[in-house]
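During the no-cost extension, the postdoctoral fellow (Dr. R.K.) reprocessed legacy sequence entries with the updated structure-token encoder. One reprocessed record is reproduced below for audit purposes.
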Amino acid sequence: MATSRPRTVGELKRSGYQPIGVKDELRRNLSKALREKKPLFKGIIGYEKTVMPQLLNAILGHHDFILLGLRGQAKTRLARQLVEFLDPEIPVLPGFPLNEDPLAPVSSGAKAHISAGGDDTPIGWLSREERYREKLATPDVTIADLIGDIDPIKAANKRLDYASEEVIHYGIIPRTNRGIFCINELPDLPARIQVGLLNIMQERDIQIRGFPIRLPMDIVMIYTANPEDYTNRGSIITPLKDRIDSQILTHYPAKLDDAMHITAQEAWAERGGEVSVHVPQFMREAIEEVGFQARKSEFLDQSSGVSARLSISLLENVISNAERRALLNGETKICVRPIDLQPAVSAVTGKVELVYEGEQEGALSVARHLIGRAVKAVFDRHFPDAYKIKEQDESSFGPYKPVVNYFARGSTLKLSDTDATPAALAALRAVEGLEQLAKAHVPIQHPEIETIAALEFVLEGLHQSRLLAKDELETGTGYRDMLGSMFEGLDGGEGPPNPPREKGRRR
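Re-encoded structure tokens follow.
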């Protein structure tokens, strides 16, 4: 039978408990996890050889640290997961705001309380989740919020001097004593407030106003920030930066597979309900590739970064569009198609910062351009290079010839994002050579449902390779011969919309 946890100071002493600092506690539990080869950070992908070693070194070295990186790089998630290396529970003195150890109290009030109660003094227990707190740095944050202030009403009611500990109203940092405290977006914290953190970082104590009150604090301080060259709202003052032991740089996923894993993990894709939405692997690649294309686009401010949330929101929007189509047509199982990408651009436009060239083109145009470049990148991984084929023989289109010739004879194809699957599939299969081309090159895993998406993917890839023209219709797209569209443009017709111009070049 398991023994119950101690309920008094005397029982705590007899249990063999010894006070331990929070940094020693983190080090001890991390060392045990490493020895036993336990998984350390759940849901953190792509940091195994870069960020993780630095983070673990900081913990083993008793360091306070800052996670420095662009938005959407799991900085806050990393900080929050550090609670897993704390003990499940620690003993505290109930009724005292500093989470004080019953065998090592820090405030005079707690010491007097234990002295009066002796071994019969009751104790409480604090869970590891309650030992982590964080604060978003905003311009209106005050020293009182973080550290504390003198409460004149309490002093008057208790007839105490302002130099007494009992008249202090403690801020959020002292109330996290024996725990982990995180300040997000540190550069946004005004410089005069950052100065108030210097004592905590170096002397490990707090001082309230000008009164001789000093209390030792046992806290791990963590900060997150975007690189200083990104934000114009503020910066980290040099003395504080000097006191932060480790600066750990985060980054976006380097591999497409890692990024796809993150998106699949975070996106709300398995929704249940009356409609089952299937997302083919090649469509998942195209959705994820949008983020990669955005991170190297000349139209976007790269110092601002492109959050992983872009791909997550885009996948959710694409699934929603397919779900809407299924509900309109009474279908219970449906496949995501390239046509679902265009109505989902709202997931892109709000998550990117445009430079001057991008503003000239417009957010919508840039978003569509990024989606097109993403489809082209995935298309190029699975299909022969259309440009090389054209260079070798201008009149030959290699494996694409049957499809190109079909449209060259004047045929067109219009697709709507509200068309029922059977009707859209029949229209796509009417394009000569299209299905054979898709089966030969598109990695179809479930032909019974993915064929329609594969056929449409080939057409979109041919358009992005400049072999077919495309019209943006009110509720969908239309494909036609590229040469014919060029002649229409010469005749004064509207023709297909131009993609955004590359920087430094004319159309």
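The CA atoms of residues 379 and 461 lie 6 Å apart. The chain has two domains: 9-249, 256-490. The remaining legacy entries will be reprocessed before the final report is submitted.
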